[in-house]
Amino acid sequence: MKSIDKKYLVNDKQILAGTDEAGRGPLAGPVVAAAVILPIGFCDERINDSKKLSASLRDELFTVIKKNALAYAYTVISHKKIDEINILKASLLAMKKSVEKLKIQPNIILVDGNKSFNYDAEVIPIVKGDSKSLSIASASIIAKVVRDRLMENHAIKYPDYGWQTNKGYPTKEHINAVLKYGACSLHRKTFLKKIFERANQTEILFVEE
Length: 209
What we know:
Number of strands: 5
Number of domains: 1
Oligomer: single chain
């Protein structure tokens, strides 16, 4: 992928972090964001938007990025917090907290998307940044792998929803399982309302824990 990161690294005092999230669309589970600072000159041509990579390659690059990054961090925001403040705010909060956790603080932050957050550094939103910035793409891989592993673990306790494959996203399999078995404690209530309304159910049904 072509990286626009060098466009913002105008001198040797600049420290650039990329940040991105995974899990805005699922019906269940958390949203996870990551922030990554890569060494100047680092390049791995395989790094790209995490959605364009196979699971095995994401896992491999997850290790490569952690090994080579000057700093990286991630944040998990629960489904309950998502229901409380909405998914956009939760995603931005997760990205901001990830940057705060970095052991090296950047003076430029590239954020995937068209929204940003307040920070004591320049914050620049980049539309489709995970396909343009090596730092953002690296953050997207960290966030995606962390979230996928969380959902695979949750699938052990809640096997009816197919999370080991759909990771909580609204696949036909997942939606049908929710309508058949009800929602569990990890589902996002605000995301289920329309599904139950379309099924002519006036309230969300929950399975007993």
